[in-house]
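Justification of resources, computational component.

The compute hours requested in this renewal are based largely on the per-chain cost of generating structure records like the one below. Each record pairs the submitted sequence with a full structure-token output. That output is archived, and it is also reused by downstream analysis tasks.
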Amino acid sequence: MSLFGVSRNTISNWVGEGLSPSDTKIPRLFQGAELARFHRARARPRRPVGPGEVFCLGCRAGVLPQIMGEGGAAAVGVAGGRSGKCPDCGERVSLLLPATDRDEPSEQLDPNTSPGSADEAAGPSPACIGKDRHSRDRKIHFANDRILHDWQVYAGRYDPKTTDAHLTAIREFEHFIGGCGFDRVSPEDVDRYRKDLIERSKRPTEDGGLRRSTLRHRASNLKSFFVWLGNQDGYRHLNRSLPDYFALPRGSIAADLELPPKPYPTLDEAIAMLRDMPNETLIERRARTIVSMAFVFGLRSAALISLKGKHLDTEDWIVEHDGRAIRAKNGKSYRIFAFPRTGPFREVVRDWVGELHSLGLAGTDALFPSDRDLRRAERGDLPDGSIVAPMKTTGAVTAAFQEASRVSGCHYTPHSARHCLAALGRKICRPTLETKAWSDNLGHPYDQITDRNYGKITEVQREQVMKQLASPQHFTEAEKDLMLDFHGHRLHPGTVEFERARRLVRKREQGA
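The structure output for this chain reads:
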């Protein structure tokens, strides 16, 4: 180790010779305050702190020894240690090595490498465990960490998942521009990144491509970030139109070819699944009730698992979806009324609530206690006055639907219950009031959300509908009403409506 190109040993000799700070033999860099700091460092020697460092008795400091043997090979002692010399004073030092570092010392490539990394270098390749196969080799940048910290304070207004999505886009853009500071971003940088996004959207996802929905979100998140950035101290010199450069061409943000709709059961199929579920133990009955609650109230997994007894009213069949007390999406709070035609599911829910009361669980306890709490309640081991908290994960909901769909041969997820209810509403609701009420009961502020995302028809169903529409026996609602008026003698002979209704009736009779 050396200071300003002069070894510690040389400086020690100068001080040992009694040279004063004004002596010309000592470089000017070590006169005055620098020499005083050296004296203080020598009086308080630095102990070894890094891997492979040893304490040298000569210069009284922690050093990384030069471990050299004959011909440049590492020297190994009989006790499994390594000997070498101090790089500062030349004194002999010794280091006791662990067994992993002294198995084959001849294979160490660099004798001056820390012994802590010698065994690591000769080991197997990293396991590459993780979700992102590209993250291991990606260089980490730190130039923008301070402003990103400020942005995360601002992003406290968002949901954590939204914040993570923004940070993903920001860090990707930072990596794309080589980690340079955001205060030096130019429109040309944004244009290159935009072209890269568009190019990746043309590749399959398995080859590192992006879906167009991801493309839109990346561009939108970066635009909002640079709008905020342009108002921060030190960044106001940025081009004010820079956020607009993240806008994408219309063709690149057109919707992808829709994936096949997720499978969901009809209400009759769901009732059949419920009847096939086991019903012997408390945990099995809890699983049946979880499935039933999903179909009665259309609850999501996180809300289901965090419900307490007080949130459910089995008299009027209402759930208080309180976003402050349960894990609700976007913290929504609203009342859910039981969906119609779900009688068999309600019987299971009512029986479960009665069983919880018989075990001593009250309204402040979890509606679906954990396995451990259920067993304790069954044995009567729950302490007096204690509150059974809801489970922290949704594993029980997933397991319940796996058991329910095991016999059907089709894998249904907890969200499939909401798809089932949306499809049921599409069949039995008449526009506009009933459709709106049904959508609100699913927690959607607009019925278009329900129509766009839930209960989509499959290709088989679409084929059947198109064939029915092409059939000569298919009549519109207006034509059916006209034929009813004809049979009810509400049309006057000789009128246009009467003649049209008579033709429709003859067409129907011929088809029959």
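Strands lie at 2-3, 6-7, 54-56, 61-63, 75-76, 81-85, 92-96, 312-313, 318-321, 334-337. The first helix runs from residue 8 to 16.
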